[in-house]
Amino acid sequence: MEEVYDVIIVGAGISGLTAGIYACRRKMNTLIISKDIGGQALIAKEIENYPGVERTSGAEIVQKVYEQALNFGAQIIQDEVVSVEKLGEGNFRVKTLKGEYVSRSIIIAAGKLPKDLKVPGEERFKGGGVSYCATCDAPLFKNKNVIVVGEGNIALDASLLLTKYAKEVNLITKRNSLSGDKELIEMVLNAPNIKVLYETSVKEIIGTFKVEKVLVETLGKGMYELQVDGVFVELGYEVNIEPFKNLVSFDDRKQIIVNNKNETKTSGVFACGDITDTPYKQLVISAAEGAKAALSAYEYVQRLSGKYAVTIDWHK
To answer: What is the tally of structural domains in the chain?
Structure first.
C-alpha cells in the first residue's frame, strides 16, 4: 500500500527545513524533497544578524537546522520535483526524477536562486569573495575594494549600501547608462567612492584562496584587470515555477502569492521563504515563514480529518 504523508515540503533551505521541524513537532508524517540542502544560506560565509547567534556562517546554521529536522523525524531525500498534481480533496501526487509520492498537504519552499555571472572562477569563490547578497555580506568588506555587477535598482541599492563599508565600489554595467529609479541613480553618481564602469563585462574572477582580481572588458578599451577583494553579483533571481504553476498564483516577478497564513490559492498547498511575495528576503524571515507554513499545514490536515485544530495559540 502506498504511503501517504501528512505533508511534503519541496525545498531544503532554511525555510523548508524549519517547516520540517515544526511539522514533525506536531507529529506530522513529513517528507522533505530537495535538489540540494541549504539553498542560498550556504552562500553566506559570515552571519552576524541572526537572533541569539553572535557570529556564524550560513553553512553552520543549515547544518544545525538540518540535524534538528532529522532528529525530530523528518525524512529528507535529495531529488528534483518535476510536477505536483492534485488528486482530489486531501491528496496530492508529487513526481520527482526518481519516484512518486502522495501527501495530504504540500509546502513549497523551493526558494530563489541568484542568477550567476557564468564566468570562470565564480563557482570556486562563492563564499570566498563572491557574494549574491549585499545586505548579508557588506559588513565583511570594510575598507576593501569591491565590484557590483548588475542592472537596475538591485545593483544601485547594493552599491549604495557597500559605500558604508567598502573603500571603493566599482559598479559594472553592460549598458551605456544606468537603469533604475532616478533618485537612486543620482545618489550613485554623487557617491564619492562609487565609480561606474559603463559598457563593461566581467570575463573571469581570479585568485588563489579568495578573490584577488577580476578580468573585465570595456567597449573600446579592451581587456584589463581590476584588483578587488569582493564581487557582488546583483543580476536578480530566478525560480523554477514549472512544477507548481497549476496550483498557485504568481505576481509579475513570478513569486508565489500567499496570505498571512502562507496559504496559496489551492486548499492544502502552502508556500514559504524566498519563492513567495513576502518582501524581505532574509534568513530569519525565511525561518519564521517556514514555521508559519507548517502550522497552517497542520491546521489544514487536522480539519481534513475532522479533528480540532488550534488556530491562535493564545486565544481560547
So the answer is: 2
